[in-house]
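User: Show me an example of a complex going from sequences to structure tokens.

Assistant: Sure. Here are the input components:
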Amino acid sequence: DGDVDAGAQKAASCAACHGAQGKSAVPLYPSLAGQHAPYLLQALQAYKKGNRSGGQAEVMKAFVAGLSDKDMEDLAAYYGSLKP
Amino acid sequence: DGDVDAGAQKAASCAACHGAQGKSAVPLYPSLAGQHAPYLLQALQAYKKGNRSGGQAEVMKAFVAGLSDKDMEDLAAYYGSLKP
């Protein structure tokens, strides 16, 4: 499983769109706070594998390209730990 | 915008995976309750256009295939209206 504290450190670049506490202020960007960590990990991996394309997915692909598997596990654990 | 009440009627087939009140009991399936309706609509349209593939996306594609634009707007409004 991912490391919540490590994920909190790595989430700095995610906060711009997904909100400081994982609650997005922009309706086209999903809130992530309290979402299931396994689903979040699956979504990150889908961007990494190119299984999500078009629209905002292209932005996510750019962000995810620089993430390791461990980074993605930590980020999923972190956002999953936040209060929705 | 979508019609919350109409969305509630149409959500019967979604509840099996996403939970009766949009809170999924299966960690691989996302909870939808309180998510931004515009994002939910964008995600449904991505499945409809084939911009999401692999894994669970294939299941979603089958469900979304039978939905009209109005259905998707109503479902997005309904889930967005639920308490996270």
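The lines above are the inputs; the final block is the predicted structure for all two components together. Helices of chain B lie at 4-10, 15-18, 37-49, 56-65, 69-81.
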